[in-house]
């Protein structure tokens, strides 16, 4: 009986994914699709004794993973300010995110404490969770 249930579940699985309801969670970008993202940084901290802060956007402690995306974001037809988007995981929060947009009054910056830089370069979304 259990074997028939497993086979039935396996046969139904492709149908569930066909409408995109499950697939959407792997393709959701942490920034608007019209954005022109030019740089990505990926950090890790297995000990969870790390932290980061992005002035004007937030931060976290006990961080285990952090990915930062930077580029330009389209706002309307004539504005393309610099923007910084980030995703992170902590010992207590499995998935968090945030952003900051350059208003022309300050700089976009994040402070990363104790984390290992695993990647720095053009965006590579294939390595995201």
Model description:
The protein is α+β, with helices and mostly antiparallel strands. The chain has one domain (30-127). It is 16% helix and 41% strand. Strands 1, 2, 3, 4, 5, 6 and 7 form a 7-stranded antiparallel sheet that branches. The longest helix is centred in the first third of the chain and has 17 residues, at 2-18. The chain is globular.
Can you tag this structure with a few keywords?
single chain, 16% helix, 129 residues, globular, alpha+beta
Order of helices and strands: HHEEEEEEE
What is the strand content? 35-45%
Major beta-sheet overview: 7 strands, antiparallel
> How many beta-strand elements?
7
Helix- and strand-based class? alpha+beta
Instruction: Return Rg in Å.
Output: 19 Å
Tally of structural domains:
1
Q: What would you call the shape?
A: globular
- Low-pLDDT sequence parts: 1-25
Number of contiguous helices: 2
Rounded mean pLDDT is 78
| Distance between the amino and carboxyl termini | 35 Å
Oligomer: single chain
